[in-house]
Write a structure and sequence with these properties.
alpha/beta; Aminopeptidase; Alpha-Beta Plaits; 2 domains; nine-stranded mixed sheet; four-stranded antiparallel sheet; 13 helices; 13 strands
Length: 420
């Protein structure tokens, strides 16, 4: 049965969130700590010191991941891996990713304080740059660990024209060695990530924990609308080929798709840009940036064709041409049933209620699933708020998540074979 967390655990978690949040860009809203920034660089020294204080052997791998190791009794046994990230989005909060890193460090500490010696090495990772960034690529550290970061990725450019490869080099990492991640090339037993839900479901249902069933797939596209420039005062409404109106119709089409999704599907337009800045010219070239997400692969696959056809038809009716550039951020990834079962049993042993729950956000777990059976544990987010300064999870809820993580790691360690 669950016991109240110790005052020491609560204090360490609370202090950890407070101290880590002090590393942020004071010129940006919230607790902004973006990858490659100076606040991020400074925060990682703090995180490495936190791992060492918890008794972990610490190094930074060639991909920039901070890796802490708690040695097991059987060095040849495939390792257990847990962790998350400590970077934030611009204007972000203090808990997304941070809970998983601080919680994993606390779990390693609690295992040692209880006298528990796992058979397997426990590897705690603060993955480099999980959040989407100015290069349009998320999960940098876990992509490298899974050997999925490509030379084409390194050629991506930000708004200044700087390549991702140059950003790595400026940060002190050698672009040619980013896939040299020995700990991830060893056989791994399982990966478990503790995380805030980033949605309202657990709080609304009054549940302290969720066990993740699947992580959403994400398809993104840029639609470029080409109309005709005309004088905004002298061109009649019927004679216009207004690219902005076509983009506005497309924004509503994207929203309609999300509203009509049968299971956990969402669709969002994030940006609309006009090439012209003149206030008296009918827009002739407009770009719209949008994405669709779902844990239902069939819907996610079908929505691409439906949106492309609908947006093109609406644009044509306005005399506007449209082109599409689609990209897959990640496919739908199922959590390993065996890891789900182990996590559920660990929560049951604590005497706590829980629910199976899909993740509408992507995580480092997506890429770690290519290396080991993967699972995630969610704790509630107040008001479902995330990626904003109001993001909040209570210290007590974080501590409950740590208890569930400890129990899950112990049970996974006891399995002789990989959970399926």
């Amino acid at each position: 049965m669950s016991q109240a967390p110790s005052r020491e655990t609560l204090d360490r978690l609370d202090t950890g969130v407070t101290e880590l949040s002090a590393f942020h860009d004071g010129d940006r809203p919230g607790w902004t700590r973006e990858v490659f920034s100076e606040p991020y660089r400074a925060s990682r020294d703090w995180t490495a010191a936190r791992m060492r204080d918890a008794g972990l052997e610490v190094h930074v791998d060639a991909a920039g991941n901070i890796v802490g190791r708690l040695p097991g009794t059987e060095q040849s046994a495939p390792a257990l891996v847990t962790g998350s990230h400590t970077d934030t989005v611009d204007g972000g909060g203090r808990f997304d990713g941070i809970v998983g890193v601080l919680g994993s460090i606390e779990a390693a500490r609690l295992l040692q304080e209880s006298g528990t010696r796992l058979r397997r090495d426990l590897v705690v990772v603060d993955f480099l740059g999980e959040e989407s960034n100015v290069f349009g690529l998320s999960c940098l550290g876990s992509r490298s660990a899974a050997q999925e970061l490509t030379s084409a990725d390194l050629d991506r450019r930000d708004y200044r024209g700087v390549t991702l490869g140059q950003a790595y080099a400026d940060y002190g990492l050698e672009p040619s060695r980013l896939l040299d991640v020995p700990w991830a090339k060893r056989p791994l037993h399982a990966f478990v990530e503790l995380h805030i839900e980033q949605g309202p479901t657990l709080e609304k249902r009054g549940l302290p924990l969720g066990v993740v069933t699947a992580i959403t797939g994400i398809e993104r596209f840029v639609a470029t609308f080409a109309g005709a420039a005309d004088h905004a005062g002298t061109t009649s409404m019927d004679d216009r080929r207004d690219a902005m109106v076509a983009a506005a119709e497309a924004v509503l089409a994207v929203r309609s798709e999300g509203c009509g999704a049968p299971t956990h599907g969402v669709a969002t337009s994030t940006r609309v840009e006009s090439e012209s800045r003149s206030p008296n010219v009918v827009p002739s070239l407009v770009r719209m940036y949008s994405e669709v997400r779902s844990v239902d692969p069939a819907w996610l696959s079908g929505v691409k064709g439906r949106l492309t056809a609908e947006i093109a038809a609406k644009a044509a009716a306005l005399g506007v041409d449209v082109g599409f550039e689609w990209s897959t951020d990640n496919a739908v990834v199922q959590a390993a049933p065996g890891v789900q079962d182990v996590a559920g049993a660990a929560v049951d042993a604590l005497g706590l209620p829980w629910m199976p729950i899909p993740s509408g956000a992507t995580h480092d777990a997506v890429h770690m699933a290519d290396l080991a059976p993967m699972g995630m544990i969610f704790i509630p987010s107040k008001g479902g708020k995330s990626h904003c300064p109001e993001e909040w999870s209570s210290t007590a809820d974080i501590a409950t998540g740590v208890d569930a993580l400890v129990g899950t790691l112990r049970r996974l360690d006891a399995l002789d074979s990989r959970p399926s």
